[in-house]
């Protein structure tokens, strides 16, 4: 192989092999006096391989436990090599040919680990190479080879013990079991009739790689299916929504070979490099219709002499439009979530990330089948989801690590970012509203980056629906973990949704209800505020401060609305006031249990008023003094006075005059008149 050809292959595969160094390394081995020069290229190779392993692991989609076990060892290898390099020990240890070859073997083991993780962590690689039997054998061999090489090099390996081997084995068994379940249930044309990966997935990946390669030679013969204009017929019975869209270009409904289709006007250049790129995108889009959960693209045509993209018609519009007009049954939500995960799995198996997964980008057919759309290849806009002007719009679903992106600093969108967004989509579907509805983009960014998330507060439901809610809550929370590596994989999310869908089927059940029928979050009866109480023009006046002003004016309805809105945004003091109102029944709603929960949340967040109120209203004898003391130490004058009296008189706690006077002095300094009078009768000057 020529050096130029070798270089080309290396850049294409983005990996370096020890083969490139063997010849030159062997030539240098005999030069004992230049050992450090001989060995340095091999150290560099090891670091390159380790970096590649890290990149592959970052986007691992399957068999995470297996990948974790191997990553533990790769990390140990990296630490040892860094120590070796820092101390210049290779000058002494690797002068001999035998030692050089030992390290060369070690780098080869790292390359084998890299290749194994790459295959086992992707669906295509897994199905191409592994069975449940040989994956165990390959894994064990890699572990043994690695530990043997580490011992030969006298490297430290803290995880080389029986306990670690037991953890590794349990993780291996879990991964194999989950993979078998996943492949049995995934459906959606990901596997063909022979239980092999659908050839379309390979075809799409080839086209995608060609499209993404800036130096690649595009196929000038590639083209999308052309539909003659006369094959698109007007619907026999027109409806008002046969033309959709608030502004041009509109989407118009037509009939194509008995199929209802949506014709989306789009200017597409005929002859240019851009045209080649678009034709390749359209070819990819056409192949993706193999998935029943990705929008079906029929081809290109013309309507009224203008170019259109022809897609299948979605009777209910987007999932967002559906939940805005109807309430969706809980069992139907689970099935929708499951099928969306099937569509995402198909996309990810083609190495395609959506970049903007939310209910607005899911179409719903008349049979309530979800269809993923508005991703890169259906939009014909290569960079739309990466531009900052689009970032503000999708902030509600964005992963915290992606929020760090600025115009000067780009942050790569990963599979883990997509998992976070899918979790937010599931929350949106569950509660049928936009996440962080009353927050601006910058508020959302600050809130989420500090670990804040939307509240999960369910309404009153049947036992079966409560079980669905419990299952969805677990999936959502696992998906929106702050640390990306702690998020569930799509495979595990799918299996959990599949279990829920099998248990709570949609057969013979109503799937859609009039809007407002279901008590999704408790707002229908008394737990939270219904969003439609507040018009968009009122949002700016719904501040917490406005609520306090309304309370002072005894406008309890207005105050309640403000407190609820700000409580749902996570404001601690608003939680206290919402709880206070619920306990008093000030807004025509009385719920002591919910009130106790809200006040305790605020108290545990450090609000001294909430701590005082919780102590005297909800606390049991064991926690009464705990919360009262917290309130007093937090500067609450009433708490200071009461705690002082209790210590002086020996109420609840044994008498402690010193402590009692301490709290009374604090209260008196805070202008508490009764505390001042008590101290005055004792001849105590609070200013001395």
UniProtKB/TrEMBL annotation:
What's this protein's name?
Protein kinase domain-containing protein
SUPFAM superfamilies, per this entry?
Answer: HCP-like, Protein kinase-like (PK-like)
Cite the Protein kinase domain residue spans from the record: 207-507
Which InterPro entries does this chain map to? Adaptor_Cbl_N_dom_sf, Kinase-like_dom_sf, MLKL-like_MCAfunc, Prot_kinase_dom, Sel1-like, Ser-Thr/Tyr_kinase_cat_dom, Ser/Thr_Kinases-Pseudokinases, TPR-like_helical_dom_sf
The domain of life is Eukaryota
Q: GO terms for molecular function, please?
A: ATP binding; protein serine/threonine kinase activity
Fetch the SMART domains from UniProt.
Answer: SEL1 (SM00671)
- Kindly give the PROSITE patterns that the UniProt entry links to this protein: PROTEIN_KINASE_DOM (PS50011), PROTEIN_KINASE_TYR (PS00109)
Q: Which organism is it from?
A: Diversispora epigaea
Gene Ontology biological process: cell surface receptor signaling pathway
| Pfam families documented for this protein | PK_Tyr_Ser-Thr
């Amino acid at each position: 192989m020529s050096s130029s050809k070798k270089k080309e292959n290396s850049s294409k595969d983005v990996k370096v092999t020890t083969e490139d160094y063997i010849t030159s390394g062997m030539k240098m081995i005999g030069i004992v006096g230049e050992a450090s020069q001989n060995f340095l290229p091999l150290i560099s190779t090891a670091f390159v391989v380790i970096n590649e392993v890290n990149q592959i692991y970052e986007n691992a989609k399957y068999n995470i436990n297996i990948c974790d076990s191997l990553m533990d060892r790769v990390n140990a290898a990296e630490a040892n090599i860094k120590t070796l390099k820092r101390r210049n020990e290779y000058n002494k240890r690797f002068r001999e040919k035998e030692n050089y070859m030992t390290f060369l073997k070690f780098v080869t083991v790292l390359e084998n680990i890299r290749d194994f993780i790459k295959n086992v962590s992707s669906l295509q690689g897994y199905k191409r190479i592994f069975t449940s039997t040989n994956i165990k054998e390959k894994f064990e061999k890699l572990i043994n080879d690695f530990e043997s090489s580490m011992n030969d090099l006298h490297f430290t390996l803290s995880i080389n013990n029986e306990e670690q081997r037991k953890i590794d084995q349990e993780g291996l068994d879990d991964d194999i079991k989950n993979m078998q379940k996943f492949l049995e249930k995934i459906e959606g044309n990901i596997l063909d009739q022979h239980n092999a990966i659908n050839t379309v997935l390979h075809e799409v990946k080839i086209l995608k790689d060609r499209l993404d390669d800036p130096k690649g030679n595009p196929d000038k013969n590639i083209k999308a299916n052309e539909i003659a204009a006369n094959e698109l017929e007007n619907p026999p019975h027109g409806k008002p929504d046969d033309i959709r869209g608030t502004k041009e270009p509109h989407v118009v409904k037509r009939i194509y070979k008995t199929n209802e289709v949506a014709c989306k006007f789009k200017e597409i250049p005929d002859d240019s490099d851009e045209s080649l790129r678009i034709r390749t995108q359209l070819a990819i889009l056409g192949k993706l219709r193999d998935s029943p959960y990705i929008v079906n693209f029929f081809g290109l045509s013309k309507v009224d002499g203008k170019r259109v993209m022809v897609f299948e018609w979605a009777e209910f519009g987007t999932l967002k439009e559906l939940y805005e007009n109807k309430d969706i049954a809980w069992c139907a939500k689970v099935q929708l979530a499951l099928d969306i995960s099937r569509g995402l799995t198909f996309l990810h198996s083609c190495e395609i990330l959506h970049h903007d997964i939310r209910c607005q980008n899911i179409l719903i057919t008349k049979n309530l089948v979800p269809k993923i759309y508005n991703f890169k290849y259906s939009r014909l806009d290569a960079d739309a989801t990466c531009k900052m002007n689009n970032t503000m719009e999708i902030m509600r679903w964005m992963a915290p690590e992606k929020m760090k992106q600025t115009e000067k600093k780009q942050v790569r969108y990963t599979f883990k970012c997509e998992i976070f967004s899918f979790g937010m989509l599931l929350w949106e579907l569950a509660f049928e509203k936009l996440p962080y509805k009353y927050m601006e983009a910058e508020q959302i960014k600050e809130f989420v980056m500090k670990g804040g998330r939307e509240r999960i507060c369910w309404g009153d439901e049947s036992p079966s629906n409560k079980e669905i809610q419990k299952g969805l809550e677990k999936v959502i929370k696992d998906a929106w973990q702050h640390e990306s590596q702690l998020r569930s994989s799509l495979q595990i999310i799918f299996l959990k949704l599949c279990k829920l869908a099998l248990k709570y089927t949609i057969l013979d059940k109503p799937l859609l209800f009039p809007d407002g029928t279901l008590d999704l979050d408790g707002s229908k009866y008394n737990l939270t505020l219904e969003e439609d109480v507040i018009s968009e023009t009122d949002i700016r006046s719904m501040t917490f401060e406005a609520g306090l002003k309304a309370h002072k004016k005894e406008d309890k309805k207005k105050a309640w609305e403000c407190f609820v809105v700000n409580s749902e945004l996570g404001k601690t003091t608003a939680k206290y006031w919402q709880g206070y109102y619920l306990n008093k029944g000030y807004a025509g709603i009385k719920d002591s249990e919910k009130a106790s929960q809200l006040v305790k949340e605020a108290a545990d967040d450090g609000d001294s008023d909430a701590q005082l109120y919780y102590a005297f209203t909800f606390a049991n004898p064991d926690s009464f003094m705990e919360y009262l003391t917290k309130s007093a130490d937090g500067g609450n004058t009433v708490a200071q006075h009461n705690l002082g009296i209790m210590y002086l008189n020996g109420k609840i706690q044994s008498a402690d005059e010193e402590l009692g006077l301490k709290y009374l002095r604090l209260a008196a300094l805070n202008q508490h008149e009764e505390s001042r009078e008590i101290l005055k009768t004792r001849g105590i000057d609070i200013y001395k």
